[in-house]
Design a protein that fits this description.
Layout: H1 2-21, E1 37-54, E2 62-66, E3 68-78, E4 83-87, E5 90-99, H2 106-109, E6 110-127, E7 134-147, E8 168-181, E9 186-196, E10 215-229
Antiparallel strand pairs: 1-3, 1-10, 2-5, 3-4, 3-5, 4-6, 5-6, 6-7, 7-8, 8-9, 9-10
Keywords: Signal
Protein name: Probable protein-translocating porin PorT
Domain Outer membrane protein beta-barrel: 35-200
Length: 230
C-alpha cells in the first residue's frame, strides 16, 4: 500500500512537472470531458480497518489489517467544466483479524473477518482547470454497501466461533486524484478515505459476552487506491 501511494505521487509529480515546464502544448483527447455522460472502470487496492469505541476502559481489541483489492464500473454525469456527479458501483474484498486480549486460548482470542462488499458510492467530483494533459481534482460523497459475508442472520455467535456484522452499512468518503489525458484514453490514479457512519456489530445473545459486551460501536474505516480507465 505504501508503495502504491509513493507510485501515484511520483507519477503525478513527473507528469505535472513535464506539463508545467515543457513548451509542448498539444492536448490529448481535447474534447473528452465535453459529453454529458461518460463511462469507465476501475481497479484498485484497499486496506480496511475497524474504529472501535468501548463502554469501559479495558484491554483494546487489536485489529490486524491486510491489503486486498476492489474492482468496479463508473458512470459520470458532467454538470459543468468543474463539477461531475459519479456513481461507482463495485465489489470490495476485505481481510481483517481481531485479537481479543482477554483470552489465552487462541480459538477464543482470534476472529477472522473476511468480507465481500457490494459497494455503491455516489460522489461529487470537484476539478481544477485542465493544465495541458492533466487535471487535479477532489472528490467527496456518501456510499452504501451490502456485506455478502456478514453472518447477521446466523443464529450462532462468538460462543460458537462466529463473529457477526450487519449486512447493510453506510459511509462517507473523501479523496483526491489526477486525471491524465493520453492519446486514446484518460487514466486516473486516486486515493480515497472511507469512514463508516453506522455501528456494524451484531452482538452476542449473552449481554455479558466477553467478545461484544464492552463494544459500544464498531465502524469500518479504510483507504482505497484506485486506478481508473475511461
Amino acid at each position: 500500500m505504501r508503495f502504491l501511494i509513493v507510485l501515484i505521487f511520483l507519477l503525478g509529480y513527473h507528469s505535472t512537472s513535464a506539463q508545467l515546464f515543457s513548451k509542448e502544448k498539444v492536448l490529448n483527447k481535447e474534447n473528452f470531458d465535453k459529453p454529458r455522460w461518460s463511462w469507465g472502470y476501475f481497479l484498485g487496492s484497499n486496506v480496511y480497518d475497524f474504529q472501535i469505541k468501548y463502554r469501559d476502559e479495558m484491554q483494546d481489541i487489536e485489529v490486524e489489517k491486510s491489503p486486498s483489492f476492489n474492482v468496479g464500473l463508473i458512470g459520470n454525469l458532467r454538470i459543468n467544466d468543474y463539477l461531475d456527479l459519479r456513481l461507482e458501483p463495485g465489489v470490495v474484498f476485505s481481510n481483517r483479524t481481531l485479537a481479543f486480549q482477554n483470552f489465552d486460548n487462541e480459538n477464543d482470542r482470534i476472529r477472522e473477518v473476511n468480507s465481500t462488499y457490494i459497494h455503491i458510492p455516489l460522489l461529487l467530483k470537484f476539478s481544477s482547470k485542465r493544465i495541458n494533459n492533466f487535471k487535479p481534482f477532489m472528490v467527496g460523497g456518501a456510499s452504501i454497501s451490502h456485506n455478502l459475508s456478514s453472518n447477521e442472520d446466523n443464529p450462532q455467535d462468538n460462543s460458537a466461533g462466529q463473529f457477526r456484522l450487519k449486512t447493510q452499512n453506510y459511509y462517507y468518503e473523501v479523496g483526491f486524484g489526477i486525471d491524465f489525458y493520453f492519446d486514446y484514453f484518460k487514466f486516473t490514479p486516486s486515493i480515497r478515505g472511507v469512514f463508516g457512519m453506522t455501528d456494524e456489530l451484531v452482538r452476542d445473545e449473552d449481554p455479558n459476552s466477553p467478545w461484544t459486551s464492552n463494544i459500544e460501536s464498531l465502524k469500518t474505516r479504510g483507504i482505497f487506491i484506485n486506478f481508473t480507465f475511461q
